[in-house]
Amino acid sequence: MRRSGVRQLPRFSDVSALFVRVALDHPLPTLFDYRWDSPIPPSVGTLVSVPFGRRHIVGLICEVVAHSEVPAERIRAVDNFCGACPALSAEWIRLVTFAADYYQRGIGEVALPALPQALRDASRWSRLFAPESRYRLLPAGRDALPRELPARASALRRLADALAEVEFLVAADARALHPKAVATLDAWCEQGWVALDIIDAAHVPAPQPTSIEAVRLPTLTDEQADAVDAIRGAQGFAPFLLHGVTGSGKTEVYLRALAAILESRPDAQALVLVPEINLTPQFEAAFRARFAALDATAIVTLHSGLAEGERARHWFAAHTGRARIVLGTRLAVLASLPKLAVIVVDEEHDPAYKQQEGLRYSARDLAIYRAKQHGLPVVLGSATPSLESWWQADQGRYTKLTLSRRAVADAVLPTVRLIDLEEERRRGRASVEGLSGPLLAALRARVERGEQSLVFLNRRGYAPQLACDSCGWVAGCPRCSAYVVLHKQERTLRCHHCGWEARIPRSCPECGNVDIAPMGRGTQRVEETLASAVPGARILRIDADSTRRKGSAQALFSDVHAGEVDILVGTQMIAKGHDFQRVSLVGVLNADTALFSHDFRASERLFAQLMQVSGRAGRSGLPGEVLVQTRYPRHALYHALARHDYVGFANSQIAERRDAHLPPFIYQALLRAEGRTLEAALDFLQQAGEALKTIPAAERVTVYDAVPLTIVKVMHVHRAQLLIESASRGALQATLHAWQPMLRSLKGVLRWNVEVDPLDI
Ligand code: ADP
Ligand code: ZN
Ligand code: ZN
Fold this sequence. Notes:
Elements: E1 6-8, E2 19-23, E3 32-35, E4 47-52, E5 55-65, E6 80-82, H1 90-102, H2 107-111, H3 125-128, E7 132-137, H4 139-148, H5 154-165, E8 169-170, H6 171-177, H7 181-191, E9 194-199, H8 222-232, E10 238-244, H9 250-264, E11 269-273, H10 280-290, E12 299-302, H11 308-319, E13 325-328, E14 340-346, H12 363-374, E15 377-382, H13 387-394, E16 399-403, E17 415-420, H14 421-426, H15 437-449, E18 452-456, E19 465-467, E20 485-487, E21 492-494, E22 501-503, E23 517-519, H16 523-533, E24 539-542, H17 552-561, E25 567-570, E26 583-588, H18 602-614, E27 625-630, H19 636-642, H20 646-659, E28 667-675, H21 678-692, E29 701-703, E30 707-714, E31 717-726, H22 729-745, E32 751-756
Helix pairs in contact: 8-9
The structure holds adenosine-5'-diphosphate (ADP) and zinc ion (2 copies).
């Protein structure tokens, strides 16, 4: 009864020949034909389990056809289908087909990874969604279980304890305790110790009216009001670029616009994307508070930090239309949202919207596509829009909405001061371990006044290098062409590229010198320096190392919000989107390194990061100050920063990009190859480049020489890349499509992949 989710197909063949064409998670960009034997007619968008080689895997029906090219004796039949999951819509299939096409992948390679893991395992279908099983402990079980369980069966004991503690336990949670928990619970049901209630989770309750007036709303600034009116009044596909300085109240604009749209249609759904998991709690809280009239299950999150079962349930809520607001990271852009009415992409410039492996998609760009496909408003918000979006708005393709002032009365943008490190040195002014006198004085003053400070440094660990002064040895990774980072607290050397770890040597392995010393500084070292240089300050470090455990980032950020921290040290994790109320000082260390990078996007990224981190200061009316330590105080980027002049900076960058024929004035793609040797990788790329020149569409495409990546070797694998570009997106796409089969026929490398619109070159 509970297993009604999977329907075994009766195997009477040849009743009426019907075939389905199925997308599978397989690199071949084709659909696979199967025979459909069930009397229940197949439908496009249904998940099926099919035999594939010796395995049985899950696929998605993309077409239903009367004939198949595959000979009748070779074609195999669909095993079964997922009756519990309503079919994915034709629009959704078009979305993944577009993404597959554009990013040069198979449909199944896009569609299946976009589904929750639990759906991709046919053996779990029956237990997943409908009906949901809830196990309740009966009094008989309360007596019997402690007695009957063997003393050492700790997994069973945990299950029994969990049952005793809660009113009921859903199957998914039970399974989280132990993989066999459901079978055990079923056995306990037969013993009469546990009762099983079945709740039909697939049943979609009638949509509730949304009324946002439950809470007191702030009075919108004129600029906010104009932005909200523009978004709510939009007809059809309407892309907006909401350019709002930090603290200008972009969130409030999203909330009001969404409220208006969700109220106007009782089943409308909204998709809100944020660049980082750590920003979801803050947003979720704001949305829950504002939309308190909505049922709690009407707001769901989708990101990789969710437990599998939770993610499946949230995805399902979106897919069935029960969720009205879906708040997620980039992967949420591929969620199934049948009633989608509006999309928000917050901090749209953030590189985290670009997936860096597998399907290398840009969630921002797919959001735009989705809005176009459905004819919806889409709001891209940022204090520092990407140059791509800024250019689109300049061209009039996106509507620009501007919030030029901070929303909170009295809150103004912080003053930015550049501390000239050369000058400090020339004047013999004391600095401690790279922290200049003025910065230390400012930090001490904040601690005394009970205000908070941020110290931003985009490098984690204690020191980026461990070196020997007498022979020049530097600790390197045995598997990569990279130095290893000293992590003092963990007492290890760690490779940030492959994860290799070793104990810190006591002396130089080359010459025996015992005075090996850390060079440069990372967040751990700054934390250590501050502890002695600013006595009495409560210092907290937030970076990828200090937040490794699930949920720990959230706990650390709430300490900051609760005022239990005086100085927060961290990487870009602290720079993004957080609405810190009591931060009045931001210190920026080591930003110079990015000024002279080979990457043409480095300045854009640095400027955005510095604007973002500066934007954490003075948000609630305390006067804010930003101190940037630099050797190049006259650099144009810092000048624009000091004037909060995004527009001037963006326009000068756009002009440079135009002159240099760089994006957004040209479309690029990268072919990357990984080989056992660098020669193998380069040779592959060379052949690929030759092959490309035979493609007619490639006449309008420029092919560059194959080059090794900066970190050429990672995990003993050598990496190189080939850049191709064209002023015509169409010519580039046509070339890439014709190139794929050629690439597949080339041999000699371990792996290769194509990335369209790459961010890192
Ligand atoms: P942004 O995302 O643009 O950096 P936020 O949305 O975080 O800014 O808003 C900054 C602060 O301004 C928040 O504390 C928010 O509650 C407050 N705020 C937003 N709009 C208004 C308003 N109209 N009146 C008063 N305060 C506002
Ligand atoms: Zn040495
Ligand atoms: Zn390594």
